[in-house]
Amino acid sequence: MQIQEVGPTDAARIDELAALAALTRAADAPGGQPIIESSYAATIRHPATGYETRDYAATADGALVGHLRTEVKDTEPRRVTGQLLVHPAHRRRGHGTALLDFALDRCREEQRDTLALSTITAIEGGPARDDAGARFLERHGFAIALDLIRRRVPVAPAETEPGLWDEALAASGDYELRGWTGPVPDDLLIPMCRMDSMVLREVPMGGLGMAPEQVDAARLRAKEAATAAHRKTGVNTVAVHKGTGAVAAHTRVDVYDDPAAAHGHVLITIVDPAHRGHRLGLLAKLANLRQLRQEFPQVADLWTANADVNAPMIAVNERLGYRPVEHTPIYQRRIDR
Question: Comparing C-alpha atoms, which of 121, 118, 142 is closest to residue 130?
C-alpha cells in the first residue's frame, strides 16, 4: 500500500477522496446524514481557518483504498484530530492499521502528543451500525473522550410548535430576534466575535479539554469566507437583549449549496450564561426553523450532534422533535514516543 499527501490543486484525486467519503458514510450509516461530495471536496481545496489540514490517499494496486485527514488547530498545537476511512470493499486487509501507524509516526515526528479520531456506532432503538470502527480504535489504545449523539428532525412544522413558540415568547419579553443568511451584519460583528469565542468555554466537550478560541473580526470574516468556499451557507438567528443590545443567544444552520442536498446541519446553538433561564435557546431555534423554511424550502431534514453530557441542549432538541439516530464518539489516545 502507498500513502501520498493530496494537495489542494490535485483535482482528480480530491474528487476521488470525496466519492470515497460519501461511499463510506453510506455503507457505515445507511439512512444517516449523507456526505455531500461537492462540499467535502471543497474542504480539501480550501482548509478551514485556524487549522493546519492535511489529506492523504492510500492506494493498493492502483486502487484508492483509504483516506486519512489530520487537522491541527492553532490553539491546540500538540493535538491532532482527524478521520481515517477505508473503502468498504478493501477492509480487513491491514489498510486501516497501516494508515493509523502512518498517522502516529507523523505525530511523533512533529512532536504532537494526542491523536483523536471519530467513528459511528449504534444507539439503542436506532438503525443497525457496525461497531468495527470502535473496536479497531480500542484495540489500538484509544478511549472515548467525547460521546456525541447525532439526531435528526423534519423541518416541516410539528403540531407542538405553536405552543412552544408561545412559551418561549412569554419567557423572553426582554429580548428581540434578528436573523440573517450568510455573513454577519457589520453592526453585529463584534458581539458575534464574543459569542464565537464563548463556544469552547461553554459547550460541554467531555474529555477533549479543548482550549478556548479568541475570535476577532478578521478571524470571523475568514471563517465566513471558508464556509462559502466549502459550498455552504449559514442561516443565523440571534436573540438580542433590548436594554443593552447584547447578543444573548445564537443558533446557526448550514445549508449545502448543492441542489441535491435536502438536509441542513445545525452548527451551533449557544446561550450566554448571563442570559439563561429565558427560553432563549428554544426561541432562537424556533425562529431559525421559520427562517430556514422560508429561504430554503428544499431542506427537509436537519441534523445535529450533542455531547451526551449536554443535558440542557438535548432537552431543547427533544422538545423540538429531534430523535437520536446514532452515536458518533470521538476516541483519543496519548502518543508514546
Answer: 121
201: Cα separation from own chain's centroid: 17
Residue 82 identity (one-letter amino acid): G
Over the range 121-134, which residues count as b (16 or more CB within 10 Å of their CB) and which as e? bbbeebeebbeebb
- Taking the C-alpha atoms of residue 171 and residue 33, their distance in angstroms, rounded to an integer, is 34
H-only helix segments in the chain: 11-28, 37-45, 95-109, 132-139, 161-171, 189-202, 217-229, 280-295, 311-319
Q: How confident is the model at residue 73 (pLDDT cuts 50, 70, 90)?
A: very high
Q: Dig out the grid coordinates for 185 from the structure.
A: 451584519
Residue 337: is its pLDDT beyond 80? no
DSSP state, 120?
-
Nearest to 50 by CA among 247, 194, 224, 250: 224
**Three-state secondary structure call for residue 274:** helix
> Which positions ≥6 away from 302 have C-beta within 8 Å?
152, 153, 155, 253, 263, 264, 265, 266, 289, 292, 322
pLDDT of residue 106: 97
What pLDDT sits at residue 67? 98
Partnered with residue 5 across adjacent β-strands are: 56
Whole-angstrom distance, CA of residue 188 vs CA of residue 19: 38
| Alpha carbon 231 to its chain's center | 15
Measuring CA to CA, which residue among 167, 191, 310 is closest to residue 248? 191
Could you give the CA distance from residue 212 to residue 210 in angstroms, rounded to a whole number? Answer: 6
pLDDT at 236 over 70: yes
pLDDT at 205 over 90: no
Of 96-110, 182-196, 203-217, 240-254, the least confident: 203-217
Question: Could you tell me the pTM of the whole model?
Answer: 0.95
Confidence (pLDDT) at 210:
84
Contact yes or no for 114/80 (Cβ under 8 A): yes
